[in-house]
Amino acid sequence: MSGRPHGDASHGGAIDCIVCGTCVADILVRPVPLSEPVGRGRLFHVEPIEVTTGGIVCNSGTAMRRLGLRVAASSLLGNDLWADVVRSRLAAEGINTAALESHATLATSTTAALIDPSGERSFAHHVGAPAAIDLAFIRRQAAHFGNSRMTLIGYFGLLPSLEPVLADALAIIKATGCSVALETGGSGGSLAEIASALPQVDIYVPSLDEAIHQTGLSDPREIIACYRQQGAAGVVGVKLGTRGALLSTAVGDMLEIPCLPAPGPVVDTTGAGDSFLAGLVTGILRGMPIREAGLLGAATAACCVTGVGATAGLRSFEDTLHLAEAHRR
Q: Residue 17 in contact with residue 64, Cβ under 8 Å?
């Protein structure tokens, strides 16, 4: 991996980015014919069942670590086998796990992904301990945030104890000198709950579906203008899937980032959005111009889709940058 990223060193934390929020143990089962009742009450045979990790803490955290950042994980886990899986997988990637806390009664968040031969997926999900992340958790973690240059929080829309107090939570983090990036999930949550927090967010690039749910608008430029009207002052954008992304660094400034071709067969699109954001944040922390950072995000997402799950296809900073530079215009 690369050494310490270059760029803005105004906040000299020992960690480049701490990823806080949804942290999941994933169980992948395939092939499962989803067009009929699963198994019809009988035993059916599948390929070797895989256990991996998911959620923004694991997905974006692993992507940023592969891109050479110093990364820490912050979340709530249960006191169970799945917590050990999550901790060991993150530690194996070189991600600092000191800010992972154990909840006394709630289980680790888990998902069983049932995958049919075409790649279509159905998910059985237990939200678990991350649902209890709240203002008290953020206060307890203040020293960890103060030790990092950036905090990436997600998923807004899936953190019910944090969303009503998000502005207060971000104020605590910002007071430590740490910048904030925010990611959405699920439906994307409501604009009413996120609006008061937007002035404190340095990077906010939701998916188009989540942005539509929040704003009621469908045009990406109008969506970005809406966020600006709510006080968003940092990098704002919308992820557009196969159409790339639209980014803005200031009012009226719009930059189109293309969707880059994958450097191999497309196997699985899980985690592509988390990977794009991880690449974008990495580029910004490395001091890249916003277009180059956006292309690094697009290249990270392009690598992601070449592997099963959200992290198997991810590559080193050098390999990912090479892909991004090949498409720089």
A: yes
